[in-house]
Amino acid sequence: MQKVLIIGATSAIAEAVARLYAARASTIFLVGRNANRLDAIAADLRVRGAHQVDAYALDVNDLAGHAAMLDAAWAASGGIDTVLIAHGTLPDQAACDQSVDLAMREFITNGTSTIALCTALAQRLAAGSNLAVISSVAGDRGRASNYLYGSAKAAVTAFLSGQGQRLGKLGINVLTIKPGFVDTPMTQAFKKGALWASADKVAQGIVRASDRRRAVAYLPGFWWAIMMVIKNIPEFVFRRISL
Interhelix angle for 35-47 vs 12-22, to 10°? Predict the structure, then answer.
């Protein structure tokens, strides 16, 4: 029986992942900002077969509150062996260009808070554990349309690469998840096309990659090829195109 901690549990992808773990009769500890939404998800997971579900309300930007949350997760679950960090926002790049305060808040949400959580988790996880973190293909190269978000995800990706190298020697697997376009409430205003995936499909990829103790997972997998092309466009050419 897995003992699973999901941070950002009210996101569409995280909820879909939680349902997969519930079907395995896992013990699940949910963390998110909206207490009422957490309670509703917890009730659903119990019906779906979860052995035990607990919920904890936290704004991840409250870095000082991370330790108490982790204490509660370990106490309620009797230890944690599987973690998914799935919180995030999709900033308005134009608004961030006009406000240093907004840009820094968004960077903290999408970058700093995740790095803080991973640092604290590394001190608690034991050999055999899995730490899975949702970054983004946006972190592979800064683009004019979302470079604040992309820079935060790039920081997360670089951090996880180094942390995974260190913790792997201790038997702890660190998985960097790089979704492409995902059809969720956060992206409801975007026109959908062939490159878009459902939250359920991405969730299946996350659980599969975690089970296989992979280091990096582009989801869906075709995004690896797309990003290899984008990353290798010479900078002088990249500056002249729109992506």
Answer: 30
Indicate yes or no: pTM above 0.90: yes
Render pLDDT for 106-129 as a digit per residue (tens, 0 to 9). 999 999 999 999 999 999 999 999
The band of 188, judged by pLDDT with boundaries at 50, 70 and 90, is confident
Write out pLDDT tens, residues 143-155: 999 999 999 999 9
For the chain, the C-alpha Rg in angstroms (whole number) is 18
Residues 6 or more apart whose CB falls under 8 angstroms from that of 155 comprise 111, 112, 115, 139
Task: Identify whether the C-beta of residue 16 lies closer than 8 Å to the C-beta of residue 197.
Answer: no
Q: How far apart are CA 80 and CA 85, in angstroms?
A: 13
Catalytic residues: 149
Kindly tell me if the per-residue pLDDT of 186 is higher than 80.
no
The whole-number pLDDT of residue 242 equals 84
DSSP letters, 101-136, are: HHHHHHHIIIIIHHHHHHHHHHTT--TT-EEEEE--
